[in-house]
Specification:
- By secondary structure, the protein is mainly beta.
- The chain is 10% helix and 49% strand.
- It has one domain: Jelly Rolls, CATH 2.60.120.
- The radius of gyration is 14 Å and the shape is globular.
Length: 134
């Protein structure tokens, strides 16, 4: 677990996958993330959140960027994260990854689907995920 946390802190950009961004965008849509908790961060206007994202088999979140940083831990299955301009990387159950703010990417589940525990920081009242056209 400690190694996963270190990886989470050290990985500059989550790169997962064998699929290209274009192929991932043609995959089925994901379910909405179930938000487990949100808490205010004292001393600024940010909020921390945590939720579970469930991906049906081969489902993909559309090409987007998050306005705040994200940390994710794959609970079940595997996901491929394709970051613009970088090779894709597959993250398996028991592994984690980090996504810096404003990095354009696509996240796609493997053939068995995936369940991901995600945490994030954001500014309430503003959109967190912003779709980015090709």
């Amino acid at each position: 677990m400690l190694n996963n946390l270190r990886c989470l802190a050290l990985v500059a950009a989550p790169l997962l996958g064998l699929q290209s961004v274009e192929a991932a965008e043609k995959a089925p849509a994901t379910k909405d993330t179930v938000v487990l908790q949100r808490v205010s961060v004292q001393g600024n206007d940010r909020e921390m959140g945590m939720g579970i994202a469930e991906f049906p088999p081969n489902a993909a979140k559309p090409r987007h960027k998050a306005t705040g940083p994200e940390l994710a831990y794959v609970l079940e299955g595997e996901v491929t994260v394709a970051v613009d301009g970088q090779p894709s990387r597959i993250v398996h159950a028991g592994e984690s990854y980090r996504m810096p703010a404003n990095v354009v990417h696509v996240t796609t589940a493997g053939p068995a689907g995936a369940k991901v525990l995600a945490s994030w920081a954001w500014n309430p009242g503003k959109p967190f995920n912003v779709n980015v056209p090709q």
